[in-house]
Amino acid sequence: MKIIALSCSPRKGQTTYKALQICLQAAQTVDESIETQIIELAGLDIRPCNACGACKNALQCPIQDDFASLIPHLADEDIAGMIIGTPVYLGSMTAQCKAFLDRSVMFRRNGWIFRNRVAGVVAVGGVRSGGQELTIQAVQAACLCHDMVCVSDGQPTAHFGATLWNNPSEGIDSDNFGIETAKNLGKRVAELSLKLTCHSRAGGNPVK
To answer: What is the pTM of this model?
Structure first.
């Protein structure tokens, strides 16, 4: 079983990436068999969807950019959970995140490949209340269009997802509350992914 994380920051290896690392490290504490991977969009050329409709008939896109390299990774049948992380720019997700989500429509059109995958969302803001929850809900809306199972950051807070503050002088390292939400989100995604996967393997109603 795999859980992958998508870092939708234009800056490679920075706070969003670090927040996703925290999520995945916590996910692995749920079960040592869980495989994890972070895919960074930083440095990739992912252009906006132009609504040409070509992906309605095949899992491919005529736009010649780096999105094509992500398709086989995202279509992997062993993926049970996905955590999407984005910085907050002007109260919402980054342009990279929106372009990625729009282009992902091909997975809906070709057999609902993301369906029943557990979805968690991480938002990192430059201030404590900088639009993190609004950003998370916007990303969750796209996940729901894929018929994914969106989760909160789990107990004890159980809000929309992981909300972190990127303190200008210390980064996210001093944000103890935010780090806890990231850990709890990772665990929640892993717990539910494991339950759904085990249920399917045990002969329950197929999770498709």
So the answer is: 0.94
